[in-house]
Structures are given as structure tokens and as C-alpha cells.
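haha ok so turns out i had the wrong file open the whole time. this is the CORRECT one, sorry everyone. sequence first:
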Amino acid sequence: MKSRPQSIHGWVAEKLGLRIVSGEYPQGEYIPNEATIGEELGVSRTALREAFKILTAKGLLEARPKLGTRVRDRRYWNMFDSEILSWCFESKPTPKFFISLFEIREIFEPAAAELAARNRSAEQTLALQKAYQDMEDAEIGSDQVFSSDLKFHLEVLNATNNEFMISLGMTIQTALMGLFRLSSSIGDEYKDSLPGHKAVYEAIATGDTAKAKSEMFNLLAKSKENLQYALQNFTGNGA
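then structure:
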């Protein structure tokens, strides 16, 4: 949990957001009234209402006249919101959460690699090369392992020169960081992934769109196996 920031309503939104995504405040149920929460957290009703506005805008809450404020069904939550993603990771997400993230990657990353091979600039190619080299140089067991992995995939998105693709990567990088932290936690698997990353880089660098797309598919297929293995250890129940 982060320390209490200057923005009181932001701090309150974080506290309540964590309670929502963790299930402490269940979906479809009404949360405690303003007086109760305000007294518990030691904040004014004004700060509380501002926090409610934040959470409502994120799709987590809805006000029901004369009834109170209740948690909306998860399908209404803005899962591309960086704060919601951060709260999800803080609240011990389920294997399904990780798999859903991976399924999103399977949808857009091969297409991104294809676009990058077509649209990349010389400068972006060098940035991708450096990102790959940083992966090779990362010390196993250090934060460099997952941070360099994340950097590589963000550089692929950047090389597409497609503002929507780039924005998507920036939007969910909090989630990707958590995903790479988990999937890169096994040293041997991380080392085994390096040839796949190199193949993606080389295909993009040479402008081979079909190969860039297929190599990203291959990389993700191996990464998915790695993720599923990591999740078995993460959950302890093979889920």
C-alpha cells in the first residue's frame, strides 16, 4: 500500500478501490454509508464524495437514489485504467485475471509486430535493439529481468507508429509489468525466451512483416506455457 498522498480524496479512492477489487465490498452489494466510511477513515464527507466520483468514473460504483452507493458488476469496470490494474495486483489476483491479460496480448502483439516491421524508423529499430540487449544483460533474479522484458514489448508497440497501439501499451503497462514479473520469475524460462525475442527484433529490423507476426505468435505461445507453469506455483493448486 502506498503512503497517504496530499490528495485526500485520491487516498480515499485508493482505499475503497482496493476493497472493491478484492471483494471486501462485493459486486452488486451496497457499500457502507458516507457517515460510517467517513468516520472509519477520518475524512470529511466532501473528500468521500470526491472519491466516489473517481470510482464512479472508473465504472466501480453507481449511486442509486434513496438506496445508496453500490459496487457495479465487474463487466462495467474499466480494466484499462492503470489504478484499477494496480489495485488488482495489490489484491492477489486470480489465475483467470492473468490469463485474461495474456489473451489480450495474443490479440494485439502479433499484429503490432507486423506493423512495427512495416512502419519502424531507424531510430526505433535501434531502440528495439537496445531493449533486446538489455534483456540479454539482465541479471537473473533482479528487477532488470521483467523491466527489460516490458521495455522490449513497449518498444515493439512504439515502432508501429500507430497512436492507438502505442496508447494501448502505455495504458496497460502496469498490468504487463505484473505479468512479466510473474512469467519472468523462472530463470531458465527467461533465458529460453531470449532467442524468441531476438527473432522478433530481427524480423522487425529487416522489415519482414510476415515473419515478425509469426515470430511474435511463437514467442507468445512459449510465454503462455511459462505463465501457466508459473501460475501453478503461484496458486499452489494448478489452476
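Residues 8-76 form a domain with the Arc Repressor Mutant, subunit A fold (CATH 1.10.10.10).
again sry for the mixup
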